């Protein structure tokens, strides 16, 4: 697992140190970063690009945004005996697509439970 990105302030201090005559290896030791990181920051500065960290890959889209949580809560209360797949299908009728696994994650986040009727056919 990757650690957190170095701050822009640290990146700027590293570049400034190298520009003032410190070698890249010395800068790496002094700021406890890799030589490759120092090289990258110096190159970005030389090319006139920003020193901000790159966006991290992964899921960034929230399929069910917070403003729709009440609607999801209401659906679960109004239809307590639906299965997860049925809840997902019903949700898709009036909202952006959401899979059953998305709903389960949101139910957990909101601490919602759907008690099933054991006598349902």
Number of helices: 6
Q: Give the number of DSSP strands.
A: 0
- CA-CA gap between termini: 46 Å
How many domains, in number, for the residues?
2
CATH topology type of the largest domain = Arc Repressor Mutant, subunit A
In this structure, how is the largest beta sheet organized? none
* Cα gyration radius (Å): 25 Å
Helical amount: 40-55%
Q: Structural class of the helix and strand makeup?
A: mainly alpha
Tell me the name of the CATH homologous superfamily of the largest domain: Winged helix-like DNA-binding domain superfamily/Winged helix DNA-binding domain
Question: Overview of this structure, please?
Answer:
By secondary structure, this protein is mainly α. It folds into two domains: 1-56, Orthogonal Bundle (Arc Repressor Mutant, subunit A); 66-110. Helices cover 52% and strands 0% of the residues. The chain has six helices and no strands. The protein has helices at residues 8-19, 24-30, 35-46, 69-78, 84-94, 100-110. Helix 1 packs across helix 3, helix 2 crosses helix 3 (35-46) and helix 5 (84-94) packs across helix 6. The chain is rod-shaped, with a radius of gyration of 25 Å. The chain starts with 7 loop residues before the first helix and ends in an 11-residue tail after the last helix. Residues 11-58 form the Insertion element IS150 protein InsJ-like helix-turn-helix domain. Keywords: Plasmid. Pfam families: HTH_28 (PF13518). This is Insertion element IS150 protein InsJ-like helix-turn-helix domain-containing protein.
């Amino acid at each position: 697992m990757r650690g957190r990105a170095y701050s822009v302030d640290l990146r700027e201090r590293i570049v400034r140190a190298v520009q003032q005559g410190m070698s890249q290896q010395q800068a790496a030791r002094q700021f406890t970063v890799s030589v490759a990181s120092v090289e990258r920051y110096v190159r970005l500065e030389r090319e006139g690009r920003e020193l901000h960290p790159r966006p991290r890959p992964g899921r960034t889209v929230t399929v069910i945004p917070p403003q729709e949580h009440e609607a999801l809560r209401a659906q679960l209360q109004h239809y307590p005996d639906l299965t997860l797949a049925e809840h997902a299908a019903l949700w898709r009728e009036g909202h952006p697509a959401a899979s059953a696994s998305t709903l389960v994650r949101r139910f957990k986040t909101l601490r919602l439970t759907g008690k099933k009727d054991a006598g349902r056919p």
